[in-house]
Amino acid sequence: MENLSLFLLLLAIIMCPIATANGPDPLQDFCVADFSSSGPVIFVVFDKVNGYACLDPKLVKADHFSVGGLHLDGSTSNSLGTFVNRITVAELPGLNTLGLSNVRVNYARHGVVPPHIHPRATEILTVLKGRLRVGFVTGNPENRLITKVLGEGDVFVFPMGLVHFQQNVAEGNTTVLAFLSAANPGVITVANAVFGSNSPIGDDVLGKAFQADARTIKAFKSQF
């Protein structure tokens, strides 16, 4: 009986997918996203991919692996003073299942990318122009802020799933290029998620979480 139990345990381990940072390895040369299908596919052992369904390889073209415009500056005339040009699987179907994406961010003077999380990706960022204050916060209970001011050519990495931010501290504009370890890394902006959720989180819950009165919580919610 003990040998049988051990055998069943080993079999279960072998049959289960191995957890990885950005999903399972692709099972084919490429899997161009077929957006005409029913949407993203949840990973199931052996017969699905962690992403969109694959386009028929006979229909694949070079354009599925290429996209332009990343060199263009976007408008920073908004409340945050930033423009984020994302290249994920949504913009580049050939990224599907390959575990990679990138962004180019323009910052006006004092512009910020507010505290946010990428639930499915580690991010590595390079400053192309200007100066940028970056940082992330470690998990509970320490909640320690790891922060640094970067100059041109400096590189910084944000670990997967941790709250992080960027702030332009140059006298003029700043530009960065970043890569993320997922074709669809996701983004959760902390303030939007907490104060602008649909349906809203109760004022009493947020009041206790932020140690603030109902009037203050309502004022925050009105911004989102």
UniProtKB/TrEMBL annotation:
Mn(2+) binds at residues 116, 118, 123, 164. It holds the Pfam family Cupin_1. PROSITE patterns: GERMIN (PS00725). Keywords: Apoplast, Disulfide bond, Manganese, Metal-binding, Secreted, Signal. Residues 1-21 form the signal peptide. GO terms for cellular component: apoplast. InterPro entries: Cupin_1 (IPR006045), Germin (IPR001929), Germin_Mn-BS (IPR019780), RmlC-like_jellyroll (IPR014710), RmlC_Cupin_sf (IPR011051). Oxalate binds at residues 118, 123. GO terms for molecular function: manganese ion binding. It is found in: Secreted, Extracellular space, Apoplast. Disulfide bonds join 31-54. Residues 70-218 form the Cupin type-1 domain. It comes from the Eukaryota. Belongs to the germin family. This is Germin-like protein. The lineage of its organism: Eukaryota, Viridiplantae, Streptophyta, Embryophyta, Tracheophyta.
